[in-house]
Design goal:
Layout (H helix, E strand, L loop, with lengths): L7 E8 L6 H22 L6 E7 L2 H11 L6 E5 L7 H8 L9 E4 L11 E5 L15 H18 L4 E4 L2 H11 L5 E3 L6 H4 L12 E6 L7 H9 L8 E6 L2 H13 L6 E4 L7 H6 L3 E4 L8 H8 L4 E4 L8 H4 L3 E4 L4 H12 L5 H14 L2 H15 L14
Parallel strand pairs: 1-2, 1-4, 2-3, 4-5, 5-6, 6-7, 8-9, 8-11, 9-10, 11-12, 12-13
């Protein structure tokens, strides 16, 4: 009688440019939960599948992964993926045709998953806004990028068995644009432990200093935020810190702030370690998050978990938390300069007591923790590959 082969689970973590990105944080969280699940199986005496992990990125990614692996005692095969013609997008396209023989379940954690394999396939789609961007206009590069992402989405969503999205809006977008709502399960990602373990907010007289994050993605809407900030009557008294990890973007924003005569009110920060972020939030009055559309929008909940109010576009925040965070949330029409100016004035005049800050921080920390995500992931995996997930234990949680 032929012996039954060992099952194989494969996590395709995707290709990343920086270890500070939300996508990489999410990918590591999925990996950590899976490692915890496999270790739980081993501890309970069950048969443990082999775990394969593939990723694309520099040496810093390999260092983070090997450091994470050292905390667990399960069998792992690591597959660093080469870069094709020095192009990350071309490499992601090539990855969708990649095959890993013998795999029973594969989960693509970062918007892409190899789809020609016979394995059961789970795909996390953080948003579809790269393909259907709410940002108006754009040159040839933006149009071609949009076409690329639409083709990649079409190529994948029809063939996968389950789709995970991390926002209620994501399910609606997938139904509207791709008609695949029946495959979709909303699973909220957890916050990093740095936010969950930070001290709860304290009463303090914080200066009117605001925080924002900048990337080259037009939908992040940073240019329009600066135009609105320049139009404020109190701009000389208020300060704005911008976290930007792109030298090209920082140069552009410095030139823009100088032309708007607000360069003395705006400063730039680069490469803030995750463990320092709670301290950064603690130092500001509010987070300005003018994005026109998001998958999950980590900064919103990072700020709220530290008792920091947030200005954001309408509909960005997730529904189940609204009753706890509404005093801390100022929503505006971020498509228009007038809407952003009105939102800035409202959040600048916001008066919150310590109790409101603490309630919001506690609600976010309770809703966005790793144990809850582990339970929701197990439901998705059981549906996709029930024979691999018979145990009731995942990540140490029953």
């Amino acid at each position: 009688m032929k012996p039954k082969r060992r099952p194989i689970i494969h996590l395709y973590l995707g290709r990343h440019q920086t270890t500070a990105s939300g996508l990489w944080v999410y990918a590591k969280t999925i990996l950590r939960i899976m490692l915890g699940y496999l270790e739980s199986l081993k501890r309970e005496g069950h048969k443990v599948p082999l775990l394969q992990v593939s990723y694309g990125g520099g040496e810093e990614f390999h260092t983070e992964l090997t450091s994470l692996f050292s905390n667990f005692h399960v069998d792992i095969e690591l597959y660093p993926l080469p870069l094709s013609l020095k192009s990350r997008r071309l490499s992601m396209f090539m990855d969708t045709f990649r095959s890993f023989p013998g795999v029973d379940l594969i989960h693509g954690t970062s918007n892409f998953v190899p789809f020609i394999m016979r394995a059961r396939r789970v795909l996390t789609l953080h948003d579809v806004l790269q393909a259907f961007s709410p940002a108006p206009g754009g040159g040839l590069y933006v149009v071609m990028r949009r076409i690329y992402y639409r083709f990649m989405l079409w190529l994948q969503v029809k063939s996968v068995h389950s789709i995970i999205t991390d926002h209620d809006m994501g399910r609606l977008q997938l139904e509207e644009y791709l008609g695949v709502a029946k495959k979709v399960r909303v699973v909220y990602p957890p916050l990093d432990k740095a936010y969950l373990e930070a001290p709860l907010p304290k009463e303090s007289n914080r200066p009117k200093t605001f925080l924002a994050f900048a990337t080259k993605d037009p939908r992040k809407n940073i240019d329009n935020l600066l135009f609105a900030f320049a139009a404020l009557p109190l701009k000389r008294e208020w300060k704005l810190k911008i976290v930007s990890n792109s030298d090209e973007m920082t140069t552009h924003l410095r030139e823009l702030t100088a032309s708007l005569l607000i360069d003395q009110s705006v400063s730039f920060i680069k490469n803030v370690p995750q463990w320092e972020m709670p301290l950064l939030y603690e130092s500001v009055w509010a987070l300005l998050f003018p994005s026109l559309g998001e998958g999950f929008g980590y900064p919103i909940y990072e700020a709220l978990s530290q008792g920091v109010p947030v200005l954001c576009a309408k509909g960005i925040a997730i529904g189940p938390l609204r009753k706890f965070i509404e005093p801390m949330l100022i929503e505006c029409d971020s498509l228009t300069g007038k809407g952003l100016v009105e939102g800035l004035l409202r959040i600048g005049k916001l008066e919150l007591n310590l109790n409101e800050r603490t309630l919001a921080a506690e609600a976010v920390r309770m809703a966005l923790n790793e144990d809850l995500m582990a339970l929701e992931l197990l439901k998705v995996y059981r549906k996709a590959a029930p024979e691999l997930f018979e145990s009731r234990i995942i990540g140490g949680v029953n």
